[in-house]
Every structure is written in structure tokens, then in C-alpha cells.
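re the bet — no i am not wrong, look at it urself. input seq straight from the record:
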Amino acid sequence: MSRFVFIFCFVSNWIVAQSFAPKPGEIGSTAIYKDSSIIVNWANHVEVYRGYMDITNPSLGFVTNGNPSAGVGKAEGNSYDIISLGDSGVAIITFERPIENGVGVDFAVFENGFADDYLELAFVEVSSDGVNFVRFPATSEASTTIQTGPYEFSDCRFFNNLAGKYKQGYGTPFDLEELKDSIGIDLMNITHVKLIDVIGTIDEQFGSFDQYGNVINDLYPTGFASGGFDLDAVAVINEGPLFLDETSNSQYKIYPNPTKNKIHIKSNGETSISISNITGNIVSEFIFLDEKTYHFNSLPNGVYFVKLKKNNSLKVIKVIVEK
């Protein structure tokens, strides 16, 4: 009679199979070190919408730890230079150039877990216009029999397509090819990465769920100022061309960029324009013929996305306003 050997892991009296990549340094790990030569750039702007310290007890208030600027530039790989999101908090990240679907993984997200098995997780979504986002299909195989406490440990082999899978200094990679069948997104022109904190409770009334409807067992409760997913950085591995293209044969031109209060837009023929802020809210829409000057006088400093559409051609250009 044939003998079948099954490998299981016993964690806090759980018996669970392990399907996904292991921790840094082990065979099969997909972790990307912060100094890896495959990294070509880093995020240059982060907008954060804080979540509660404990979503079941709003009276505790929102998390306060860190500043969004900590999520800009290279990963520090420590426990301090980060921005905490809190329960269901959101970070929207943008870049100097778009991310494109190239060979292998395309970008990586860095969290600040101090150990291989101390994990705070987040969903990852991407967009090519700041409005339509597509989520990477996340999977959790962690048992939901016993709640993982705020100072307890998990195994990264239980999780896939969730940021925070690896400890500080090591990024969790994402491959845009996995989203190739998605609608409403241009995988060669990813302008936004959105991170949404996983609420770790196994209480289905408040918890977060993976692509199969399984509640995700994460550190919970984390009722303190640094609770939830802690963003260190987002690294670009496959980078697209510059947003701004002022070459003589370009179909569109937008300048100056960055700007203090206005941009000049040039296009051959009738062109429709939609301008949105970093959260995807449209601040202006209009149609022009050949040339137009647009003023940002009534709008705050920040990152804006100018979507130009003519016939079947569509281009999104990132504009930075610094008054």
C-alpha cells in the first residue's frame, strides 16, 4: 500500500497546511531586500486616511503614529520611520513614473514587522487613473479557531498577495500579470497603489476577508497609536516612461510640471480633459481644441492626474502643484 506523507504545522494548537512562499533566507522565499539591485525607483507621494485604533471601540480614536512622508523614498528597514494606518486605514501611493507589467514581479511593499513571524497585513490594489482600482486576489490559510493576539505570531506561509508578509527590510512583491484579465485598468500605466489595512479580528462582523470569503486572522486588537499596517515604502521594479512627454512627435504636451498654479496643454484637434486629485475625485472636466491653459488657483497643493482623451487615444499625466 502506498504511503502518503502530509506536512503540517502546529501553531497555538492549530493544524494547518502551508502553501505559500516562506520567510526571507529560506528556499522559495519571494522577499525582496531593500538594497536589491532590481529596484529602480521608490514612491514619491503618499496620502493617508487613518483608521481606528480598534474598530470595535471607536472611542479610542484614530491611530496617530508616523507621518505620510515616511512612506516616501527608500525603505528604512526599521521600526520607526513608518506611517501607521490603523484598522481599515488606507494609503494611496503615487510615483514619478508609472509602474508597468514587465518581466517578473513589478513592485514591492515594505512593512516594519520586527520579526519573521510578527505580521501586520494589508490588501493591495492598483489603478491607472486613480478612480478604478483592482485588488490583488489575496489568500489566507491561517486558522480562525483561535484569535491571533496583538503580541502573538503568525507564519508568512499562510498568506499570499497580502502586503506585510515579510519583516522589516524585506518587501512583499506583486506581479501585475496576475491582473491581466481585469477590466478598467492599463497594466502598462499603473499610476496608483492603494493599501488597505486588514482588520485582523476573526469576528466576521468586523473582520477582513480573502478572495474565497475566509476571514483573515491577523494581529488583533492593536488598540494603540501605532496599530494596524505600518507602511515603510513601496519599491518600483518595472518602471514605465515619464508621465510628462514633451517630445516633438508627442500627441500631447503639458508644461510646466511641476507647476505653481497653471499648466499649458497642447493637443492636435478636439480633446476631452478630466483632472482628478490623488483620491480619484474629479476636480474639473472640459473639452478644448488644440491648446488650453488651466489654472489651479482654487485647488490646494498636491498631486493631480490629467486624463486626456481623443478618439481612441487615452493618456494620463501626473502633475505636481507646488504653490
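see?? The chain has a mean pLDDT of 89. told u. also DSSP finds no helices and 20 strands in the chain. so pay up
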